[in-house]
Amino acid sequence: MEFLSKYLTYWSEDYSSILDYMYEHILISFTVIILAVAISVPLAIYMTKMKSNKIKGLIFNIANVFQTIPTIAMLAIMIPLMGIGFRPAVVALLLYSLLPLLRNTYSGMESVSSEIVEAAKGMGFSTFQRLFKVELPVAFPYVMSGIRVTAVYIISWTTLAALIGAGGLGDLVLAGIGYNDQYMIFTGTILAIVIAVSLDLVLGRIEKIVKRA
């Protein structure tokens, strides 16, 4: 009970700064998620239309290289290239998040059987109609799975963005470590988990609604 009492006191005294950290964390995370979807999904769709397996392999290999670099190392690489703060953190996390979305979307598009595509052609569907009315609806579960996994990863990785001055809940955790303050560490950790779980639930709900539609 003593821990809870002191923890509630900490919240009542510092709730404004806690909300600021939370806002920064959400801003970084959502910026990366939106950019990752905007880049990876169209690129994966385009890759399924490519005839050259070498180019496909090259794209996957490049994305895989980014994925194998440890998050802290990726953030550190950005410092001499872009400095510190919001932009280098977004770029580092974006590069780190491309592969899961790219791979899932590509797998989803490849799962569309040629018979379905040929049937759509026989019905007079244009290329865009086939894409949006046939192929993407079939691939949607794969795409959504990639988005959900990537979103949770990004929210977790964003905590490390504080190491290059980007802010977010990582600042709260690092400050807690520096001051040996368990309440700050606990708050930063729990809020990051809450954001990740909440977003996953929302995306899961959206997935169910779209499937029904």
Automatic annotation (TrEMBL):
Family matches, as Pfam families: BPD_transp_1 (PF00528)
Membrane topology recorded in Swiss-Prot or TrEMBL: Multi-pass membrane protein
GO biological process: amino acid transport; glycine betaine transport; transmembrane transport
GO cellular component: plasma membrane
Signal peptide (residue range): none
Coiled coil start-end: none
Keywords tagged on the record: Amino-acid transport, Membrane, Transmembrane, Transmembrane helix, Transport
ABC transmembrane type-1 domain ranges (all copies): 22-203
Location, primary (coarse class): membrane
Location of the protein in the cell: Cell membrane
TM regions (residue ranges): 26-46, 58-79, 85-102, 151-177, 183-203
Family the UniProt entry places it in: Belongs to the binding-protein-dependent transport system permease family. CysTW subfamily.
Protein name (Swiss-Prot/TrEMBL): Osmoprotectant transport system permease protein
Phylogenetic lineage: Bacteria, Bacillati, Bacillota, Bacilli, Bacillales
